[in-house]
Amino acid sequence: MKKSDILAINQGFIRQEWEARTEILENYLREQEKGKRQVLVAELDNQVAGYLTIVSKSKQGPFKDLYPEIVDFNVFERFQRKSIGQKLIKRAAYEVSFSTDILTIGVGLHSGYGAAQRLYIKNGYVPDGSGIWYENRQLQRGESCLNNDDLVLYFSKKLV
């Protein structure tokens, strides 16, 4: 990711009627410059089509402080179904393979994450077995929750 990608990514969000994320993206760039996060940006026809970020150690969930995690993975709607997500996730695995043999990711459970759920499974990511997490804690049997972005299932992939 470079500074100019921030504007292009924001334009992608605005085109699909989402809010711009300037502050978040600027923070990603700062963290990338400090070696705390890697940001992969995909382009198609000279336009930013999507991105994902990788943190060196997961900050929450069952893999906290153990393995790298893909965090914030977006392919803009008009670029979906063009293998961009597939290429980004494969590149992420390649990038971390020099330092670890495990890559992790959390995915939301509502239907808005359906394409992502399928992508991870098709690429060999498997649920870790800890069940569902809600608001950054393991949800216990019988507990209530909301089916929102905070309801997550964690996956991992062995890279070698």
UniProtKB/TrEMBL annotation:
Coiled coil, from the record: none
Domain of life: Bacteria
One Pfam family recorded for the sequence: Acetyltransf_7
InterPro entries cross-referenced by the UniProt entry: Acyl_CoA_acyltransferase, GNAT_dom
Domain N-acetyltransferase: 1-160
Gene3D superfamilies in UniProt: 3.40.630.30
Keywords noted in UniProt: Transferase
Gene Ontology molecular function terms on file: acyltransferase activity, transferring groups other than amino-acyl groups
Record-given protein name: GNAT family N-acetyltransferase
Organism: Vagococcus hydrophili
